[in-house]
Every structure is written in C-alpha cells, then in structure tokens.
Amino acid sequence: MATQRESDILTVAAIRSTKEAGSEVLFHERQRIYTLSTRAVKDEQTLSRLHEALKKRKPVKVSLNLQRGEIERTDEPPAKELEVLMREHPPLEKPQKIVPIELDKIDPMTFNLAGLYLKWPVFKLCEKIVPNYAKAKEIFDFCANLSCHLAGPPAVPPCIPFQYVRDGCYARAHQMRRIILKRWGYCVEKVFSFATANNDTLAVRADKWGGCCVTWWYHVAPLLRVRLQLKLPGGLPPVKLTLAMVIDPGMFDKPVLLSSWLAAQENKNCHANAHVTSYSIQPGTAYAPSYGGSFSTDPNYVSTEATLINYANLTTC
C-alpha cells in the first residue's frame, strides 16, 4: 500500500488564514498548501510552533498526512538531523530575482522569446541550447517514459512519479535536469511560479490523471531554450528564434511555451483565487524556494531521490 504519511524537517514560508480552511501553512520544501488536522487544531502547541518557526526562520519537524493534505503534529528537530539538512542543502549562490507578472497583460508572441524579451542573466551561464523542437520532444518523451505508473523498470532509476502531481515538483524537476545534462548536455534552467499575494493559489486540472483539481503555492519545472527556424514567404531568408519551453510531463503531453505553462496554473474553474503572482528563472541547480527570495540546492540528489521513491506509488485523483 502506498505511504500516505511522511515526517520531515521543513521551513515555514507563510501562514495564511482563510474562511474555508482556517490556517493554511506554506512550506518551502513542499509545493502543496497544508492545513491543520482536527487533532492539530486542538493542540495549541502545533500552530504556536509553526508561528515561531516562521518568525525566527528556524526549521521544524512536521508529520504530514499526504492523503488529506494535513499537518498532524510538529516537533523540535533533533540537532544531528538539522546538521545533516544544512550540509545537504547549501543555499544557491547569486539567485535570480522573483518578478511579478500579470498573465492577462503579456503578449505570448513576444513573451516566450529568449534573449529578445526574456533577458534573464542566468541565460548567459550556458550557451548549448536545444537545436530544434524535435530534439525537445525527444527529451520530453524520454523523461515522460520514466513515469512510475508505467509498467517495467525505468531506463534511469528511480522512476519519476508524474502520476502524482499534488506535490514533489522540485524532485521531478531536479531529476529531469540531471538526466538532460547527462544524456544530452543541453542548458537546463528551472522556472518557478508562485502564488503568494493575499490568498492567491496556483490551480490546475489534472486531466492526465483523472481530471481532479490540484492547488499549490508554487511550482517548478525544467526550462529549455529551443531554437526554431521560421520560413518566410517570397524567398526571404528564414528567421531564427529561440523559445523558452517547459518540460512538465505531469501536466502536459509535449514541451510547451513558458506562457502556456504559466497560464495552465490559473484555472479559475478549480479555484476562484487561481492567480500566478510572480515567476522566476533560476539556474538548474536551484531546488526549492527559501527565505527572502533565495533558493536551496540538492547537489547530491539526496532529497530528490528520497522524494521520488516516497511518492512512487501515490496517485493524484
């Protein structure tokens, strides 16, 4: 039977109050938005410890119910476990900015043009971009075929739980980045989306996995810069463009434009407050968000593999 509970040392990004769910807790190391279990609500120490962890920016050990999306209890983390955590997840050096965005005001015809419109400094760190869409689709298909819901052992273990999109995007993205670098050697950045203003929420319909609605406070996936050549009429020379495309088999069946990836997370049929507040393009080494616009890393893929294995048998809907 799939594991429906987990315990981990986490850092609190925010605590929000809503009429529907009471307290919502956002953890940097989890994209899912968690609420308090009935037991945790009755235990005043649970919420108090979470508020203290937020105020003092200190980690807290949390027991989570994955099936219900609830916090069951909190504890002080052991010193030795904290030491290991800090050693395994050094902060990202020189992170890129997180910038606000209003998707209804962008022009998809220009927004996705890497180097022309998207002038992120991180693009200067690597120049080996994907030569064409066919290669990008090859990369996508290879990653998608590593999904844990498919029969047989994966070509690259451990399998990637694309069938479980309620959480774990950080691990899926990091494993895909690892594979793309090793097999193809192309530049791989990470794109993060956030819903952090008021009670904004990222909301998607998991059409690939049963059609239920899924909500997050952030999401991350590998971003590839893909070169395309447009043929013009009248014998004019072709135009070469570089597009920002996202590899996210948990949501899509092919590489998609960055604007399409962001827009899919504003499904107001799933949540009235569905809204992408901001986004950021970070180096591929970025793993999860951290305090004050910083990011953590997972250079040895310790948390990546642990999460992939832990979520391997879970399902979304």
UniProtKB/TrEMBL annotation:
Looking up InterPro entries in the UniProt record yields: Gln_deamidase_2 (IPR041325)
Pfam families documented for this protein: Gln_deamidase_2
Name the Gene3D superfamilies on file: 3.10.620.30
Per the database record, which ranges form the Protein glutaminase domain? Answer: 137-264
What's this protein's name? Protein glutaminase domain-containing protein
**Species annotation:** Candidatus Brocadia carolinensis
